[in-house]
Amino acid sequence: MDKSSHTSISKAVIPAAGLGTRFLPVTKATPKEMLPIVDKPAIQYVVEEVVAAGLRDVLMITGRNKRPVEDHFDRNYELEEALRTKGDMERLEAVRSIAGLARVHYVRQGEPRGLGHAVLCAEEHVGGQRFAVLLGDDLIDPRDPLLVPMIEAQQQLGGSVVALMEVDPSQVSLYGCAAVKPTGQDGVVAVVDLVEKPAPQNAPSNLAIIGRYVLDPAVFEILHHTPPGRGGEIQLTDAIREMATHESVGGPVHGVLFSGRRYDTGDRSDYLKASIRLASEREDIGPDLRGWLRSFVANELAP
């Protein structure tokens, strides 16, 4: 493939239609994407990651009861006026800046038919362009950029790119796992096969796909013909596997190896760990929180 023919990537798709059942009852009326990590909803961290990578066009795939997500990225003139009247300019700027982060669009998935179907809902908006997909359950620390090297790898090598991270072999059944071969490029591997949530003894490696993708638009045609898999859902992993094993239908597929800080906010325990870790590193509240944590561990959790 002629690398000079690569078009720049400008659009990101964020699936946000999940029911958040692991966080019930709080997610009965509150979208899981709006659960706070310190003082920002989880979805805002993801949009900020998109913007930091130079992308400004965001499509969110939403569903029922997701209106608070749309409201969050819109202006709130009453709140802004109240803050202005109080002279609270710091919070006013924080609130106003959210609406200016990116051009955010929305489309409803309609029915929960899996991640592959959610991505397929973006076809009309994306058109024939390569695009990024970011899952809101995976928060990537801004100090360890991931999306930028993925875009660079796609522009150099063509096809699609997934993010891969080593996990404990006992955890591979929670992820899609990749069989890979070296490319000669540091931190980038060629993906030759993928298995969705394999049993540990059947996993091709302990390299798990985490929630970042840069996809060739050929994925849409494949998804149209991808039959439902586990749970009756259309799996994105199945479509990417088709591209990895048959390069003529949209491949190749490469993986960028990630070893930075990642926070899994889809799990209740990891969600709490992420909140504590990010809060403890903040200059405004970190010192007090770290002092309290040391006291708590020493006194309350002492044997």
TrEMBL record:
* Cited SUPFAM superfamilies: Nucleotide-diphospho-sugar transferases
Q: Which InterPro entries match?
A: GalU_uridylyltTrfase_bac/arc, NTP_transferase_dom, Nucleotide-diphossugar_trans
Q: Note whether Nucleotidyltransferase occurs among the keywords.
A: yes
GO molecular function of the protein, one example? UTP:glucose-1-phosphate uridylyltransferase activity
Domain spans labelled Nucleotidyl transferase: 11-278
Write out the entry's keywords from A to Z: Nucleotidyltransferase, Transferase
Q: Does the keyword Transferase apply?
A: yes
What Enzyme Commission number does this protein have? Answer: 2.7.7.9
- Which GO terms are recorded in the biological process aspect for this UniProt protein? UDP-alpha-D-glucose metabolic process
Q: Which Pfam families match?
A: NTP_transferase (PF00483)
What is the similarity comment for this entry? Belongs to the UDPGP type 2 family.
**Name of protein:** UTP--glucose-1-phosphate uridylyltransferase
This protein's species is: Actinacidiphila oryziradicis
